[in-house]
Amino acid sequence: MKIPIETSNRHVHLSRKDIDLLFGEGYCLNVLRELSQPGEFAAEERVSLLHNGFEISDVRVLGPARDETQVELLTRDLDVLGFDCPVKTSGDLEDTPGLRIRGLKGEVTIEKGVIIANRHLHLTEEDALGLGLKSNVVSMKVGDKILDNVVVRIDSNARLAVHINKDDEFAEFVDVGTCGELVEDNLS
């Protein structure tokens, strides 16, 4: 089965509290475009990330609001900001560094929540059963390349897709819009 490969750039997921602090009390994020996963969107709003006197500006905010603010960086951003952060599954914020975020109306400092998001496969339980998936970490064949360590993320509202970040897109020479297939070792 062909599975769409989608890429993401650095971005920020904000909590309701931090949206209020960065953009104003009761502010609603403006939808720029819907993303492939149901209910998720790229917002028109952008923020700046600050750490140790360095800054990355024009970073896209994704919605909707999350329980906790999370920043997803690219490997090359770590040198710009002057620190290191782990590769983790989105939402797993334990043992992660923080930084300052600047919006139109204010700034917030998060104590944790900065990650490089690992490669992951979005699918439903039915998709997993249909594919005969037997592992929670898989490998994908994309053209003549193999993407290892793709974390399986099962959600009843998921739309089948593999998400990689721009680091993978450039390093693995994966074209946007490409499809991949699960490597046979992952299947029953």
In words, what does this structure look like?
With 188 residues, the protein is mainly β. It has two domains: 10-117, no CATH class; 120-186, no CATH class. It has four helices and 15 strands. The chain has helices at residues 16-23, 75-81, 125-131, 166-171, and strands at 3-8, 11-15, 31-34, 41-51, 54-66, 70-72, 87-88, 99-102, 107-110, 114-117, 120-123, 137-142, 145-154, 161-165, 179-182. Strands 2, 3, 4, 5, 6, 7, 8, 9 and 10 form a nine-stranded mixed sheet that branches. Strands 1-14-11-13-12-15 form a six-stranded mixed barrel. A hairpin with a 4-residue loop joins β8 and β9. The longest helix is centred in the first third of the chain and has 8 residues, at 16-23. It is globular, with a radius of gyration of 17 Å. The mean pLDDT is 92.
